[in-house]
Specification:
By secondary structure, the chain is an all-alpha fold. It is built from four helices and no strands.
Length: about 110
C-alpha cells in the first residue's frame, strides 16, 4: 500500500521529511506572536514548498531558493531557529546546489 497522497507510488523519504519539517515551521511561525515584517513572505514560501512536495520530488535549486527567501524573511528569530534548521536539513537531503542553478521561473534570463 502506498503512503503517497497522489496514489502514484511509494513516497520518497526525503519528501516525507521535508513535508514534516515544513509543517513544523508553519506551526511554530503561526504560534510566534512577535512582529515579523516579512511574515507573509515566509508563509507564502512555506506554502510553495508544501506545494512542491505534493507533486513528487521537487527540484533542488527551487528548494534552496525557497529556503533563502524563508531565512531572509524570518531573520534571526531564535525561537524559530530549530524548526528552520530542520527545514534546511531536509532540503540538504536533495543534494548540493547544481553548478548551474536554474533561474527562478518568474525571472527572465538576459
Amino acid at each position: 500500500m502506498s503512503n503517497d497522497p497522489t496514489g502514484v507510488g511509494p513516497q520518497d523519504p526525503r519528501v516525507a521529511e521535508l513535508r514534516t519539517a515544513v509543517t513544523r515551521l508553519r506551526r511554530e511561525l503561526a504560534g510566534y506572536r512577535g512582529h515579523l515584517p516579512d511574515r507573509e513572505i515566509a508563509e507564502e514560501e512555506l506554502t510553495a514548498l508544501d506545494g512542491q512536495t505534493a507533486t513528487g520530488v521537487p527540484a533542488g535549486d527551487r528548494l534552496r531558493y525557497s529556503l533563502l527567501l524563508i531565512t531572509g524573511a524570518l531573520g534571526s528569530v531564535s525561537a524559530l531557529a530549530p524548526a528552520l534548521r530542520e527545514v534546511r536539513n531536509a532540503i540538504d537531503l536533495f543534494g548540493p546546489l547544481s553548478p548551474h542553478p536554474t533561474v527562478p521561473p518568474w525571472r527572465v534570463s538576459p
